[in-house]
């Protein structure tokens, strides 16, 4: 039966390390600005989780709440003010945006040096080409988990299910950067199982409950479940049939308590890194 990768515990360890780094910063408190637009309940929940995580660590967090009628030009002006604000080292615009606002324009308005989500094209480019960059939080959190578990991707076959800009695509790039052989699968992939069954490291990020069953995985595989879905009773569950797969995998992440806690931790991590860069 598989080793359970305890994302909550790894996240706690990392947050303690971050606290030390914050304490070592002289004359500077890391600051994160979070822009929340409209009334989306999930967005509000994520934002308050992020703010609380900042407070717990001693990161200054500034919430900018805007109505969903806000004009794109107004939003861009606010971003520009935050770009120039010395107290702010990270800027995050909670997605999704109202339909009349261009996500691309908003993301590209944030200075790459403050883009702690790692969504700006400059940071995406640097992720691929190398160089100092912010990496997207969810896939980078998974890389940290693998590191903590002493799972070295080098030479392993990593199969990523999902190709979104925030999870799947950067996940494959990060694994490639650590010398894994990477296969991407997505909604148009023919015969998913033939690919996933070859994975030494399987990353499931499709957002479909029970997409990955025991016959999708190789015996001894490392299985990372990014999915956040709800079952009939409204309980949080991933993309992986956990009860089946844990008997066959060598290591597996649970949902909840796996990838989730790492994501916000990496946002804190990027904000602290940013403050360190500004203080140099
Ligand atoms: P998305 O909807 O943008 O992308 C889903 C991807 O899955 C797409 O690239 C699509 O091609 C692929 N896909 C869809 N059906 C498929 C199928 N049958 N076979 C193979 N591939 C298929 O979603 P996302 O933003 O990348 O998020 C994916 C999941 O991860 C969601 O459940 C989301 O809630 C969750 N998520 C969790 C965290 C976390 O911190 N735990 C963070 C971000 C996203």
Automatic annotation (TrEMBL):
The keyword Ion transport does not apply. One of its GO terms (molecular function) is methenyltetrahydrofolate cyclohydrolase activity. InterPro entries: Aminoacid_DH-like_N_sf (IPR046346), NAD(P)-bd_dom_sf (IPR036291), THF_DH/CycHdrlase (IPR000672), THF_DH/CycHdrlase_cat_dom (IPR020630), THF_DH/CycHdrlase_CS (IPR020867), THF_DH/CycHdrlase_NAD-bd_dom (IPR020631). It catalyses: (6R)-5,10-methenyltetrahydrofolate + H2O = (6R)-10-formyltetrahydrofolate + H(+); (6R)-5,10-methylene-5,6,7,8-tetrahydrofolate + NADP(+) = (6R)-5,10-methenyltetrahydrofolate + NADPH. The keyword rRNA processing does not apply. Keywords: Amino-acid biosynthesis, Histidine biosynthesis, Hydrolase, Methionine biosynthesis, Multifunctional enzyme, NADP, One-carbon metabolism, Oxidoreductase, Purine biosynthesis. It comes from the Bacteria. Residues 136-277 form the Tetrahydrofolate dehydrogenase/cyclohydrolase NAD(P)-binding domain. Gene3D superfamilies: Leucine Dehydrogenase, chain A, domain 1, NAD(P)-binding Rossmann-like Domain. Residues 5-117 form the Tetrahydrofolate dehydrogenase/cyclohydrolase catalytic domain. HAMAP family: THF_DHG_CYH. Belongs to the tetrahydrofolate dehydrogenase/cyclohydrolase family. Homodimer. Catalyzes the oxidation of 5,10-methylenetetrahydrofolate to 5,10-methenyltetrahydrofolate and then the hydrolysis of 5,10-methenyltetrahydrofolate to 10-formyltetrahydrofolate. This is Bifunctional protein FolD. It comes from Jeotgalibacillus haloalkalitolerans. The gene is folD.
